[in-house]
Amino acid sequence: MKKFLAIFIVMLATFAGIFICKADVTSAEAVAPWNVRFTVEYEGDTVSYNLSKEIIGLEKQADKRGFYLGINGKRNLYNHLASLGLPEVAVYEYMLPNFSRVLAHFGYVNCERVDSTVVFDKKGFNYTKGHNGVEIDAKTLFEKALSSNGYNKHLTLPLAIDKAVTVSELKQNTVIKSTFTTNYVNSGANRCYNIAKAADALNGVTIDVGETFSFNAIVGDRTEARGYKQSKVILDGNYTEGVGGGVCQVSTTLYNALLLAGFIPKATQHSLISSYVKAGFDAMVSYGSADLTFVNDTDHPIYIASSTQGKSVTFTIYGQPNIYRIERESVETRDKFETVYVVDANKYPELIYTDQTKVVTSGSDGVKTQSYLKYYQGDKLVETKLIRKNSYKRVDQVIAHGAQERE
Predict the structure, then answer these.
(1) What does the pLDDT look like over 118-136, one tens digit per residue?
(2) What is the CB neighbour count within 10 angstroms for residue 56?
(3) pLDDT tens digit string along 224-235?
């Protein structure tokens, strides 16, 4: 009789949606389809939740909060509440009282993402390692909890990982894009000094995405007060002494490195051709009037390194890998300079005899150029682009000598 009564009560409880259970009952345990029971574990740390215990004292709110709804009913209520734009955690707490206690228990797991970083200076690249961001995936935990169906479901704490930028990823976009070198073997000490000084100012420069680079803004005014020295410069189509002579070779070398890296900077030509680079590929700079500029339109920062060794200056550009291999080509027409001999005892009294000579003006060919960039994928020429047309002034060489023949 007692056995029959027990069976009858269990059957009645099942049909009525009432859950009666004994502690620590496993396979023989009766299941209330509305109840939410689960244990969450993270690296040996566990916390349990039982809706039957959490709703004690809240029975009057049971209908509105769906405590006694089954899985589908709870899901429908959740979808309805979520569609109202309510805060997710507030909805979880509304349907499962003290669900936030579970989240708070594992709060130590949460951490913000820290990306790896790269610092570039005169010594090169320095990388710092970051770490992923981690956050409890409350939505997944809530949805898995609803599916417990009265059973004490064992859940592994679900996590949402916010992937950080790694050092490896940074290194993929700090590769050599190009390098270019010019020589100044015939330069005097002052010109060598000016070249080294200007190049050093540009060593270790970073240009962020979308940023505009300005040669003059970084190098600054070339004055004696700032340490620059007198040397030959091109002024109004002639070679003359001026402060900062040699700096244009630095800007020209950088200009060509940038071309090979995939940029087309804004540059100004000299009035005369330069001895250290192909005609049509020079970049004259003058503080306050002529600058060398370009915009970093790539998806990653651009890094500029420079060095002077012996009597050569080199620029290396770093950034994301190039799409194409780039070569320069100049098509030119030359008007050869002539040599003119003059005798002027008043102007050059030191020149007495005909075999005593002095170069008054160095000769420079007149040149008309068309400058191209050629883009290759492997050995296949993909595109040829005309980037500039230039005309350089012809200057005849003038040599002064004495008037008297030697006996």
Answers:
(1) 999 999 999 999 999 999 9
(2) 8
(3) 999 999 887 766
- Residues 45-70 have a mean pLDDT of 95
CA 312/CA 192 separation, integer angstroms: 9
| Both structure tokens of 340 | 């003119």
Q: What is the reported pTM?
A: 0.78
d(CA 271, CA 286): 13
Encode burial over 225-261: b for 16+ CB neighbours within 10 A, e otherwise: eeebbebbbbeeeeeeeebbbbbbbbbbbbbbbbbbb
The neighbour count for residue 43, using CB atoms within 10 Å, is 8
Q: Averaged over 339-365, what is the pLDDT?
A: 91
The HSE-up count of residue 372 (CA atoms within 13 Å, CB side) is 11
Average predicted confidence (pLDDT) for the chain: 90
Average pLDDT on 150-156 reads 92
Contacts of 260 by beta carbon, 8 Å cutoff, 6+ apart: 177, 178, 179, 180, 317, 326, 328
Cα separation of 369 and 402, whole Å?
38
CB atoms within 10 A of CB 214: 15
Digit-coded pLDDT (tens) for 242-255: 788 999 999 999 99
